[in-house]
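Entry 14. Structure prediction run on the chain below.
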Amino acid sequence: MKDHILFHDSHEKTYRSPFGALPCSEQVTLSLSGFLLPSARNVYLRAWRDHQGETLYGMTSTTESKDFYQVKLTGAEVPCLMWYYFIVETADGIYYYGNNGKRQGGVGEIRREVPLSYQMTVYRESPIPSWYMEGVMYQIFPDRFFNGLEDGKTRSLKKDSVLHGRWEDDPIYIKDPSKGNIMKWDFYGGNLEGIIQKLDYLKDLGIGIIYLNPIFEAASNHRYDTGDYMKIDPLLGTEELFQELCDEADRKGMKIILDGVFSHTGSDSRYFNREENYDSLGAYQSKNSFYYPWYRFQEYPHEYDCWWGIDTMPNTNELEHSFKKYIYQSEDSVVRYWMNKGAAGWRLDVADELPSEFIKELRLALKEENEDAVLIGEVWEDASNKVSHGEKREYLLGDELDAVMNYPFRTILLDFLLRQKNGYETHASLMSLYENYPKTHFYSCMNLIGSHDRSRVLTRLGEAPDPESLTETDKMQFRLTKQKRELAVARYKMASLFQMTFPGVPSIYYGDEAGLEGFPDPFNRRTFPWGQEDQELMEWTKRVIELRNQYPALQKGEWESWTAGEHHYGFRRKIQGQETILTVFNTSDKEIEVKEKMNGINASKIIELIHRFEIPIRDNVILLKMAPFSGFVFSTSKK
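Output returned:
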């Protein structure tokens, strides 16, 4: 912009073309403008490529007034992150132009000292299966979904465990008061039969992908402390039942994704066997154990590396040859075995704890078994520039993950709906992800608003108190007031509409659609309320999923922000020459008017797809009145 001393906006093609992440070896044009440039002695772009280092590029003026400079450069031949800022030498000294203080890209800042750099992700293009990209996911915590056995029986109660007598009971932790560790795990008896029996429910809801929290034998109810990777937990069922589940799901057009917990096992496992519940010679029992090299002992056998200091979850040595062979290399390895039984992909628990080499090799094995399989990673931050254990991670560069759990999306959405961030800030945060992620990864993100690791979304949206301020009893007994629940429901409707119309793979945590409330673990893991569902939420969720599945533009259409304000935000999805879908939200407790230009839309009106009303387009502008806490989705098509 000519009225700026210096200006660069990485979100505008005038200044960075093409926008966003760059495929390997492709060219990008970077530009700088401003009224300081005509008097400049030299103008440079300073670039830094990971694994290569610094390069200084001289920029040239492209206008007679010499207030606009450009440089073309080619992305690295191998995937990496590239960082850049501008240097302007004048008679008055050196000026720099770099990223803004929030490191979000877009409009930057002028400085007299070395600035923050802009990021450019250079990646190797890798196709991601369409069944995944275009689907809607449903996450099931198996013990809490449904018991499909006659009269609610269980087939195999675990040692030192508690079975709830009523499905509606609140979950509890029975802990040792002196040590704080869990002494007995509570179970409800959900099983694979229950999931099979509810496949029609999920199909009717519009689900195409089922992600199961761990189903392999383990001591706990969450089963992230694996006891035997090659055995379905007896409480859940058998290998034959798992195959039946996969076959039945496939017949109904659904895929099954398993949870792979490979950074650690359980201490109560056939591999470690500290509790001596297995007939194997575990690493804890003898240094002669086949499994001894899988673990890292500081003082054998009682002191060993474990996950977050929890001694029932000893960490594995993932790069040890026999461990890699067992998990994914051999023909009968864990990953290959269960894929041959019907799994369509894996979600990697705590991907940050897994070495890059391990993830890359596991992905190769997975694709060898089925090139249409998917690998999803649990990553809580921006996955393009994540640093873990001192290592820059390469999740999205083309050789590791097909998708990541989009916790940043959840944070951005909840901040917007709870009015902690306005529409402009929401736009900036979403654009940062859009810029940093390769486009295929932006569209493949597992877009969750609820999960087994966070408070129930309804509880959050109802402005519940900070759980850290409550006792365990208070958290167990807490329910939203009628007024707060109504507010939460209104916001949930906005959240789910946002989720179903935004790029990525929407993921529903079981029971969110039925109105479950709850603070973090264990209260976010209450049983599905069969027969007591919130019908208003159920019908709404089904409707917005139907929209997602009905309109190709919502599955794979181009995305761009459309309108933003202090209390509103909206975006558009479109397929060129076909339909355009517009979604807009009002987060305030008052009615607002949104007046916005309709550039690029050749229509006289737009049609709201849920409430079925029309808004005329006059002089290329619409005027929309929005009730408090409301969201609308419009189409230019006549469907």
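The chain is about 20% helix and 25% strand.
Filed with the rest of this week's runs.
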